[in-house]
Amino acid sequence: MPRYRYVRELTEAERQELEDAYRSHPDFAVRRRAHAVLLSGKGHHVGQLQDVFEVDRDTASLWIKHYEQSGLEGLLTRPRSGRSPIYTDGEILQLKALIDEDPRRVKAAQAALEAATGKSSCLDTVRRALKKSPATPGTAAGAR
CA 59, CA 56: separation in Å to the nearest integer? Predict the structure, then answer.
């Protein structure tokens, strides 16, 4: 007979906290994990959660484990590693100013920024940096 995994019995306060997270947390992933824990508390085993949420069995089991260890904090999305941005916010503003001078010469602006900062990057990186940065009035962020 297979062994099923369920979340431990939830208190009324825990259930209410999970309901609130499920209904109104700004992060979709947290809402989904809270929903899974709530369903587990109602008797749905990990295999059923796997089917409902279309995730791996280990993932559904980890959601329950993290909740049992850390409560709602365990369901929050953790920061992930990744490469830090090449350009600082100030350098992106400098790039925007260069592009504002002549919006059709992105490569020339890139070369000028490279000469000023000593940092090199490909044209795609420059375009991504421009798109990610907050738009300022009069800036040609969508320059090609």
Answer: 5
